[in-house]
Write a structure and sequence with these properties.
Elements: H1 8-36, H2 57-63, H3 69-95, E1 139-145, H4 150-157, E2 164-170, E3 188-191, H5 197-204, E4 215-219, E5 223-224, H6 230-239, E6 244-249, E7 269-270, E8 296-300, H7 301-310, H8 332-335, E9 336-346, H9 364-393
Parallel strand pairs: 1-2, 1-4, 2-3, 6-9
Antiparallel strand pairs: 4-8, 5-9, 6-8, 7-9
Length: 402
């Protein structure tokens, strides 16, 4: 068999195909160009007659006049509008803010605008915000008060310097009456009748609200402060590294329950004690150590952030809380203590107890005291259940954990 020879006749079909493709591409290009210039009049184009000697341009334009130029223009505008909407949607999705690490509920905000903490600093209604504050208090002291104890509170407030924000929780509904004291006019007043200290602090002292304060004093109204100075107290707290503390109680205080809170002579601070036989299963656990009472407690900022979360909404008396404060600092037997060099007297005035209701022939305070005891049991049960559930979920034996 012979080998076919390459010749010019073999290339002719390929050249024909190339011509067809080129012609088709030209037609498409011309059509698209026409869409881009829908109002272009061919008769107004200045073309040399020698280029198209036998073509009547007027005839061509008239022949296709039934295809409305305006319709083509409208179609082009619609296409452009769709593209614009699509681009806007794309840009919105690209610029929409969502930052999961922002505080809960603020994920859509740019971090630079978020103000997650506040304070109790009083501000003016005029002038520049940057000029509002002549001093920023470093500490906060709160008293839960009735007006009958006004003289006691007046004496106590005067033991706190201008470095303290003063806050009064009024359980008897009387507030403006306190304006007889000059300091009351710059204090923060919160009034809700027949509520306790722990009800107030759970609702008004969220850790993000009191974050500017290094220490928060949460005191009852029946405390004698003749031998107390708040600034000196803080110096001792810092010196001994106490995160949760209270002033020592003078021996003349009424209603002594725990040896741990009794003032010691010739001592600045103590962190442990000896109790009655059988009261302490471990010398480093309450009530022999890592323990203060809830009448005149002082918290550091970090300790309060933990304690606030432990306070139960419905348990308003706080009984049993003092035995669990240790869970919020480490090591608790070193971080919790009593300041002996700055002491107070517990006067044991049952003013809040009298805010109860007489039922079944019992005095108002009896019903209040009964609920205190019940809440102590309920809090202990909740803590035990919560810890047991955690340890079991971790595959640990809670009975081997102290």
């Amino acid at each position: 068999m012979g080998v076919p020879l390459r010749s010019g006749t073999v290339r002719k079909p390929n050249e024909a195909m190339r011509l067809i493709v080129t012609t088709f591409a030209g037609v498409i290009f011309g059509f698209l160009s026409g869409l881009s210039f829908p109002t272009l009049s061919l008769t107004k184009m200045n073309l040399p007659s020698s280029l198209f000697p036998s073509i009547d341009l007027t005839y061509i334009e008239d022949k296709y006049s039934r295809l409305s130029t305006q319709a083509l223009f409208n179609a082009l505008n619609s296409l452009q509008a769709d593209n614009a909407i699509s681009m806007q949607s794309y840009k919105y999705n690209e610029t929409k803010i969502w930052i999961p690490t922002n505080p809960r509920g603020a994920e859509r905000l740019p971090p630079g605008i978020i103000t997650s903490e506040s304070d109790f600093y009083l501000r003016r209604l005029w002038g520049q915000p940057s000029e509002d504050l002549t001093i920023k208090q470093k500490y906060l002291v709160t008293f839960t008060v009735g007006y009958n104890q006004k003289n006691n509170i007046d004496a106590a407030v005067k033991k706190f310097s201008e470095n303290f924000t003063i806050m009064l929780f009024h359980y008897d509904g009387l507030t403006t009456e306190w304006d007889e004291f000059e300091w009351s006019k710059r204090a923060i007043h919160v009034s809700v009748p027949k509520q306790t200290k722990w009800w107030y602090v759970k609702r008004f002292l969220h850790p993000d609200i009191v974050a500017p304060y290094d220490y928060i004093f949460m005191w009852d109204e029946d405390l004698g402060v003749e031998h107390f100075d708040a600034e000196e107290y803080i110096k001792l707290v810092r010196k001994h590294g106490l995160e949760i503390s209270q002033p020592g109680l003078d021996a003349n205080s009424g209603g002594f329950t725990w040896e741990m809170t009794r003032k010691r002579d010739n001592s600045e601070v103590h962190k442990d004690t000896e109790e009655r036989p059988g009261w302490c299963t471990d010398p480093q656990l309450p009530p022999c150590a890592a323990f203060v009472e809830i009448m005149a407690t002082v918290f550091s900022r970090d300790a309060w952030r933990c304690v606030w979360h432990m306070i139960q909404n419905d348990l308003v008396h706080g009984w049993g809380l003092d035995f669990s404060l240790r869970k919020c600092v480490e090591p608790p037997h070193e971080k919790i203590g009593v300041v002996d060099a700055q002491w107070i007297v517990h006067q044991s005035v049952p003013s809040l107890g009298n805010q109860g209701q007489a039922e079944g022939g019992r005095a108002p305070w009896e019903g209040v005291r009964e609920r205190c005891r019940n809440e102590w049991t309920m809090f202990q049960d909740r803590m035990t259940i919560a810890e047991k559930a955690y340890y079991e979920a971790m595959g640990m034996n809670p009975f081997n954990i102290t």
